[in-house]
Amino acid sequence: MNTVLDHIELHRDRYFDELKQFLAIPSISALPDHKGDVRRCAEWVCDELRRIGMPTVTLHETAGHPIVYAEWLGAPGAPTVLFYGHYDVQPVDPLDLWESPPFEATVRDGEVYARGSADDKGQIFMHFKAIEAHMKQNGRLPVNMKMLIEGEEEVGSANLDEFIRTHIDLLKADVVLISDTEMFERDTPSICYGLRGLVYFQIDLRGTKGDLHSGSFGGAVANPGFVLAQVLAQMKDRGGRIKISGFYDDVRALTEEERTEFKKLRFNENQYKKSLGAPRLFGESGYSTLERVWARPTFEVNGLLSGFTGAGAKTVLPAVAMAKVSMRLVPNQDPDKIAKLFEDYVKKVTPRTVEVKVTRMHGGKPWMTTLDNPYVQAAGRAIRLGFGQDPAFIREGGSIPVVATFQETLGLPAVLFGIALPDANTHAPNEKLDLGSFNKGVITSAFMYEEFGKTGAGR
Ligand SMILES: [Zn+2]
After folding, report:
1. Closest C-alpha among 366, 364, 406, 375 to residue 167
2. Which string of DSSP letters, residue by residue, matches 327-388?
3. In a 10 Å sphere around its CB, with 0-12 CB exposed, 13-18 middle and 19+ buried, how is residue 101 labelled?
4. pTM above 0.90?
5. Interatomic CA distance for residues 329 and 335, integer angstroms
6. pLDDT one-digit tens code per residue, 260-283
7. Helix, strand, coil shares of the chain as percentages rounded to 5?
8. Strand, helix or coil at 39?
């Protein structure tokens, strides 16, 4: 391992110039105008993978942007790592808020400013350099490596599920490794072991065939706006607990070990409250804020619409009312089961005075891996070696649907080791990558393959 570290030390100076080229390609997957750039970026990734020593590199066409696949399988008996990442980036508007051009990587105060620097080009490049150091120094890796790098993550990975389903043998592995998440805070290297799922709905209520005069008809029929408020008020009690029958049946309880880990993190509720501009924090009683956001399900109203909302006053009795609502789910809640419980509950609590329609929109399954998973433990050891400190074991309130797909379709546990800082401005102007975290991340990644290699025989 020492020689691998020496290699990194010796070549570090050229890393920025190479990363700069990668970041210069405006691979914005959402914009049709950039279709050629996205392809050029996929080709750049292919070339780079060949440069760092991956013997098999292929570009796969999809109905959208190409998928890059590479492998090195020269370690028989060792585990196989499936590395996943994305080379596409978010759009850059509003452009005038960028302090330096989004596709000209610029270093200020030890941070690289560019679109994609943190999400996710900088983080996959970190692995490229760790792989390169092993390959150039030893001619081999401590594990078998399969790499799947897509160009549609920022637009919902529309063609990835299909690719995974049709390439199950190709993608066979022992663990998925992803670096597309954040550290809990600066100098707190983190492993994310749980993500929430989602179900999303639109509720439509109709009272009458058209809007009515509230003087001539008020008192004769139900007001859908008011009924909607009553229906929504039935969703939670005052302590923030969701009242949908059976909603909590499959919720995996937090273990004492997890609660202890979360308590160890430096989290200042008061500062958090201030940063949000909230008069008070609120959530399910009996849980801390981190527990509520990471490990408890929620019910949220995402939007409401009914009646007259313009300037002035209009005495109208609206014909319709609409709400968009969603629930963040945690392991082991099943989105289909929760959707059914929700639809039944809405029908039960909505009075017959209005017609109700519930439309299910998108969603995704929650995911987690256990803390005692040998690969999670191995990643923890690598972080201790690379950063010189203990990792934080954290969860995220958001969703990364592909992680659940890897678990379901390929039966793989995943290690989410991200080095973006919470203030990395991903998806926003002035996206940035902290070079200190990046440098430690390269070393940690190099150690991680080594530690994964020690977890026992592969398939
Ligand atoms: Zn990303």
Report:
1. 406
2. EEE-TT--HHHHHHHHHHHHHHHS-TTSEEEEEEEEEE--EE--TT-HHHHHHHHHHHHHHS
3. middle
4. no
5. 7
6. 999 999 999 999 999 999 999 999
7. 35, 25, 40
8. helix
Ligand 1 centroid to Cα of residue 297, in Å, is 23
Closest CA to 329 of 252, 262, 239: 252
Distance 197 CA to ligand 1 centre (A): 17
How far, in Å, CA of 63 to CA of 46, rounded?
19
Encode burial over 6-25: b for 16+ CB neighbours within 10 A, e otherwise: ebbeeeeeebeebbbebbbb
Kindly list the catalytic residues: 88, 153
- The predicted model gives 355-376 an average pLDDT of 92
List all residues 6 or more positions away from 286 whose beta carbon is below 8 Å from its beta carbon. Answer: none
Neighbouring residues of the ion ligand 1, judged by CB less than 5 Å:
119-120, 180
Distance 129 CA to ligand 1 centre (A): 19
Whether pLDDT at 77 is above 50? yes
Give the distance (Å) from ligand 1 centre to CA of residue 262. 24
What average pLDDT does range 122-129 have in this prediction?
98
C-alpha distances in angstroms, 174 versus 31, 171, 289, 368, 415? 35, 10, 34, 16, 11
Spell out the residues 6+ positions from residue 274 whose beta carbon is closer than 8 angstroms to its own. Answer: none
SS3 94: coil
Backbone angles phi, psi at 420, to 5 degrees: -70, 145
Q: Where are the beta strands (DSSP E) in 6-47?
A: none
**What is the length of the chain?**
459
Q: State in Å: Cα 153 to ligand 1 middle.
A: 7
Q: How far from the centroid of its chain's Cα atoms is residue 371's Cα? A: 19
Residue 459 has pLDDT above 50, yes or no: no
For the chain, first and last CA: distance in Å?
A: 24
Ligand 1 centroid to Cα of residue 453, in Å, is: 26
